[in-house]
C-alpha cells in the first residue's frame, strides 16, 4: 500500500493510542500470565473497536486520504478488535475451566451489568455476521451494525464495574474519552444521514 503523509499520520496516531493503552496497562499490577492476556485483550479489543466505529462518519474524507486501502484498513481494525474481544473470555474460560463465562447473567440487574461483556460479545458477533451478509440484506445490515456501539457501551460499563485496569485513573479517563467520541461519531453519522435526506427532499420539491 502506498500511503501519503496524511494517511501515515493518522495510522501513527492510532498506533500511539495502542502504545498509550499498553503503557497505562503495565502501570497496573499483573499477578500472572493469564491475567496479563485477559486484560490486555480486553483493552486492545475496545481500542480497535473504537477506531473502527469512529471511522464511519468520515468515510468520504478517509477514502480521499487512503484511497482503496482505507477499506482494508477498516477491516483490519474490525477483525483485530473481534479477535481481541473473543480471546478475552476464551482465555478467562480456560483459566477458570468454566464455559459458563460466555452466558449472559440475568440473575440480577447488578450482575447483568457487571458481566455486560457477555451480551456485548453476542452483539458484536451479530453485527459482524450482518456485515458479512450485507450484500444479501442491504436494507437491514446497517441496523445490525449499530449493535457495535451498544456493545462498546456494554463493555465500558463492564470494565468500570469490575475491570482491574479501570481502577487506573489514566485508563478510566482515556477509555471514557473513547466511548464519548464513539457515541458522538454515531450521532454525527445519524445527523449526516438526516441532512442528506433533507437536501434530497428539497431538491425533489424544487424539481416538481
- Work out the strand percent: under 5%
- State the distance separating the first and last CA atoms: 47 Å
CATH class: Mainly Alpha
Largest sheet: none
Give me the count of strands.
Answer: 0
Q: Roughly what percent helix? A: over 70%
CATH architecture type:
Up-down Bundle
Question: Which structural category do the helix and sheet elements fall into?
Answer: mainly alpha
Our Rg estimate from Cα atoms comes to: 19 Å
The average pLDDT is 89
* Overall outline: globular
Low-confidence runs of at least 5 consecutive residues = none
Tally of helical runs: 9
Task: Provide the number of structural domains.
Answer: 1
The ordered H/E elements are HHHHHHHHH
In CATH, the topology is named Four Helix Bundle (Hemerythrin (Met), subunit A)
Amino acid at each position: 500500500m502506498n500511503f501519503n503523509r496524511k494517511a501515515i499520520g493518522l495510522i501513527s496516531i492510532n498506533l500511539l493510542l495502542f502504545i498509550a493503552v499498553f503503557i497505562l496497562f503495565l502501570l497496573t499490577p499483573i499477578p500472572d500470565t493469564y491475567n496479563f492476556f485477559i486484560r490486555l485483550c480486553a483493552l486492545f479489543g475496545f481500542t480497535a473497536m473504537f477506531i473502527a466505529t469512529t471511522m464511519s462518519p468520515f468515510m468520504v474524507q478517509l477514502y480521499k486520504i487512503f484511497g482503496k486501502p482505507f477499506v482494508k484498513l477498516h477491516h483490519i481494525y474490525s477483525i483485530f478488535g473481534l479477535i481481541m474481544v473473543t480471546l478475552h473470555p476464551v482465555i478467562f474460560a480456560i483459566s477458570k475451566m468454566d464455559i459458563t463465562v460466555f452466558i449472559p447473567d440475568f440473575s440480577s440487574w447488578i450482575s447483568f451489568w457487571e458481566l455486560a461483556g457477555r451480551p456485548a460479545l453476542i452483539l458484536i458477533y451479530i453485527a459482524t455476521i450482518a456485515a458479512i451478509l450485507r450484500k444479501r440484506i442491504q436494507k437491514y445490515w446497517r441496523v445490525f451494525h449499530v449493535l457495535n456501539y451498544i456493545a462498546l457501551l456494554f463493555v465500558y460499563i463492564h470494565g468500570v464495574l469490575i475491570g482491574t485496569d479501570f481502577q487506573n485513573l489514566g485508563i478510566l479517563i482515556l477509555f471514557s474519552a473513547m466511548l464519548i467520541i464513539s457515541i458522538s461519531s454515531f450521532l454525527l453519522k445519524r445527523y449526516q444521514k438526516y441532512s442528506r435526506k433533507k437536501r434530497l427532499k428539497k431538491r425533489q420539491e424544487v424539481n416538481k
